[in-house]
Amino acid sequence: MLKGKTVVVGVCGGIAAYKVVEVISRLRKLGAEVHVIMTKSAESFVAPLTFQSLSNNYVVRDMFSEPKSWEVEHISLARRADLIVIAPATANVIGKVSGGIADDMLTTTIMAAQVPVLFVPAMNQAMYANPILKSNISKLAALGYMFMEPGTGSMAAEGEHGKGRLPEPRHIVERLVDILLRDRDMKDIKVLITAGPTREAIDPVRYISNHSSGKMGYSLAEAALKRGAEVTLVSGPVSIPCPGGAELISVVSAQQMHSEVMKAYARFDMLIMVAAVADYRCAEISPDKIKKNGDDMTVRLVKNPDIARELGEVKGERLLVGFSAETENLLSNAKAKLEAKNMDMIAANDVSAEGAGFDSDTNIVKLVKRDGCLIELPKMSKRDVSHKILDEAVMLFKKEIKE
User: Fold this and answer.
1) How far is Cα 349 from Cα 324, in angstroms, rounded to an integer?
2) The CATH number of the domain where 341 resides is what?
């Protein structure tokens, strides 16, 4: 399955390093060429000879040891790799890369890489919950680095239980295979994605909006870019950076988003409507700040244009994917929306469920297709959800082309 693919595995100094032995064994059985880089601390947990025997390649340990070839080693490995995975990824190495520090062979190779890099964190649950680590992960994720969610369970420290365990080796390998085999499958596909909330002004100070953070739409944009797509992001106001390589069209209100989408949609192959667009806007916007006067205030609302419905009427052979954020009757509401708006697929999620709400880093999604096919995804990171959605969207798109 992975013949012709080269994976560089960076092993850091954590108790979970012994599990990486199985990761390398599984990769080799799938035909991948594997090169291992160990930090000095990692050698305290697993002998380099173990990884050397399993990978059939010498283990890189020291930047200043005698080179095994006449190449600049960290550059050579970075160029030969199709993918770099760091497992277990310690808080120390994550912090170094986040800060631009390259003081050993592993961090230097990561900094020189122009291929996907996947961090698989594993550490004590208190360390994983530390806001400094969370900030470092968020920074790297915004720059395009990938992360696997650690597992929850018993820690190495006696009697402790929490989130921070290294995922099972088979799950790590499944993720690596997923990344390696979907590479560039959206090349030459043009994708328009809407994201974030809209704001409907009441006066120059106040507005009506919702809790959407834009994370799901931006994650989809990032995933599509990694798969080779040309991406335009029409986004409401958010506080996250635009993925590098995407064209960003910033809007505020639903009417502005409607105008930009309807002007642009004709040049795209896929239309993915993720934005939480306000259904209503104020009939009248006060030019001045409204002063407090009495115990209540009445604001008259009028309906906003339904962007997805209008696209469904004019989409032609384009693929239209929507989102349905619900708090009750999830599937029946999603199916009704799919039909009414002539969508090809809809991603339904219960925003009241733990791990699936607005501003969460995870999501729990059910994908409903026009033919009635239902795909139920477990709770996973929004990055993983994005790739699952794109997996199905690409299949539908290619099927339509053949037909």
Assistant:
1) 6
2) 3.40.50.10300
